[in-house]
Specification:
55% helix; seven-stranded mixed beta sheet; alpha+beta; globular
């Protein structure tokens, strides 16, 4: 199994030099997020991921989680590692100070999350979904609900999940059957079954807070009849102290292709007490707060996988001797040259490296847009950032998860037969990473969200803030000799993007299936163009 080394230099370069995080943080009022503070946090995260979390990666894959009469036990070392994670204050990093958080920027937290995911994808998923649960409760919950659930979630003593999928429906949430009957005390009684619930049951935390979609009596059919609920594993008092066991149980855990160290559960709700978030039948809107947070997290998983696979493949390619270089002997004192000198191996390594570095930059850019959405005082600037985020989130999730998986395939290929066997860890990375292309909406779903809902659905309005940035950037640098090789291609890409969008929109007026037929290719083309100019405009 390759040793993981946190890419501290690369992370700091993107944050501090490329995106000038210190200026960004100071403008938004994050006064504590000085460069010294950022450096210290990254360094401590590197220690924890390298020394504690990464060594458990292969153990988690080999042992997996065990289920016994509804009780789930995580692999050896996971519970102790999670305790250190909580003790170090990592769950609190970007959470509101009002509920016990440190109040630091979300972009800093997302950069740290990459390190944990590279070190151990399965472990990182346990605390990862808590961020979405917290964002949902903070944005849509009542003050009472916030006081009940947020402090312990922020602290990490409790973890969160998202319960959407049912045995008969996945993406089509309008088909859900879970019912929520009102109780006399204002709560609801939920009955139904959810599947594929990541970290749905485990032994790491004192309580698990499920964010659940269900239907109330008389709800309209389809998506218009979805309501959202907080359903804890253990009921809690108004002050957050734990009471009796709720009607929530784990019926089984899935036997999976990868991420074996994380418990993917069937969760049964048998008259479980739940608390409505927001208004009845308006749960889909509330749920997207969770989904959007999760989608950026999954995009980061793609970057993390590319980095981990690159590190393992690079170390092997430097040591493995095989054949002589066609351009002349490179290792005269050995029987053959290291495979890193061979062009095809270099092609795959450089592909991995470019995806890790470019993807990290895109994720950091999105994360700064999240910061602006949370802390910017100028409402126009805030709205502009949120529109860009709406456009770029499905692109980042789909593109980076697919490319992360491709990078793990390159990792296996570079090691050849050794990549296909378990001891080197490269095949585990590939198995673990495939899920990132699937959950929180497959690549096809992200593409439909982008083209059908975001672009055609708004008649192109969602494109305007980003397109404006590109135009202004090109105008400002038209006469800059250092940028001459970039400006004309960027302008050509922008023109081609506009023409392609108009063409698809016109065809869709005659045949709506044109959208579905073009959406994935459209997203892929757009990703290629964006990768050439999204950060140049910064």
């Amino acid at each position: 199994m390759p040793d993981y080394k946190a890419p501290i230099r690369d992370v700091k370069f993107v944050m501090q030099e490329l995106l000038e995080c210190e200026t960004h943080y100071q403008h938004l009022g994050y006064q504590d997020a000085s460069l010294d503070m950022v450096d210290a946090i990254i360094a401590e995260a590197a220690k924890l991921t390298e020394q504690v979390v990464a060594p458990l990666n292969q153990i988690g894959d080999q042992q997996g989680c065990t289920w016994n009469d509804g009780v789930v036990t995580t692999p050896d070392g996971f519970k102790e590692a999670y305790a250190k994670y909580v003790e170090g204050g990592w769950p609190t990093l970007s959470q509101s100070e009002e509920f016990g958080g440190q109040g630091l920027p979300h972009s800093l937290n997302i950069s740290i999350a990459e390190l944990f995911s590279s070190a151990n994808h399965s472990f990182a998923m346990y605390p990862g979904l808590s961020h979405g649960a917290l964002a949902t409760i903070e944005a849509h919950g009542t003050e009472s609900q916030k006081q009940q659930f947020m402090p312990k979630l922020v602290e990490g003593k409790w973890t969160g999940t998202m319960c959407l999928t049912e045995p008969h429906c996945g993406t089509d949430l309008g088909m859900l059957r879970t019912k929520a009957e009102p109780n006399d005390d204002g709560s609801y009684s939920l009955t139904g079954t959810k599947i594929f619930i990541s970290a749905g049951e485990h032994d790491l935390s004192d309580n698990i807070v499920h964010i659940v979609i269900a239907r109330v009596p008389g709800a309209p059919e389809g998506n218009k009849g979805i309501s959202l609920f907080i359903v804890p594993k253990f009921n809690v008092n108004d002050d957050g102290t734990i009471l009796d066991r709720n009607g929530v149980s784990c019926g089984s855990i899935e036997h999976k292709m990868g991420i074996n160290g994380n418990a993917t559960c069937v969760i049964n709700f048998d008259g479980a007490k739940g608390h409505l978030i927001g208004e009845p039948n308006r749960g889909l809107k509330c749920m997207f707060t969770f989904m959007n947070a999760a989608r950026i997290g999954v995009a980061s998983e793609g970057v993390a996988a590319a980095e981990a696979s690159f590190q393992g493949a690079l170390a092997y390619a430097k040591d493995r001797l095989q054949m002589r270089s066609i351009s002349g002997v490179k290792n005269p004192n050995g029987p053959a040259d290291p495979i890193i000198v061979h062009p095809d191996v270099r092609r795959m390594l450089l592909t991995q490296k470019s995806i890790a570095e470019g993807g990290r930059a895109l994720i950091s850019y999105l994360a700064q847009l999240v910061d602006i959405g949370h802390a910017e005082k100028d409402e126009a600037v805030k709205a502009d950032a949120e529109t860009k985020l709406a456009l770029l989130t499905p692109i980042a999730k789909a593109f980076l998860s697919e490319l992360g998986f491709e990078c793990t395939s390159h990792g296996v290929q570079i090691l050849g037969g050794h990549g296909f066997i378990k001891e080197w860890g490269m095949e585990q990375l590939m198995r673990d990473t495939k899920i990132s292309c699937l959950y929180e909406g497959t690549t096809g779903i992200q593409a439909l969200d982008l083209l059908a809902r975001k672009i055609i659905g708004t008649q192109g309005e969602v494109l305007k803030p980003f397109s404006k940035d590109v135009t202004v950037f090109c105008q400002q640098n038209m006469d800059n000799p250092a940028m001459a090789e970039f400006i004309q291609p960027i302008m050509a890409y922008a023109k081609e993007w506009h023409e392609l969008t108009v063409t698809i929109g016109a065809k869709a007026m005659k045949n709506p299936d044109e959208i579905g037929g073009a959406s994935v290719d459209y997203l892929t083309c757009l990703c290629s163009w964006l990768s050439k100019n999204v950060l140049a405009c910064e």
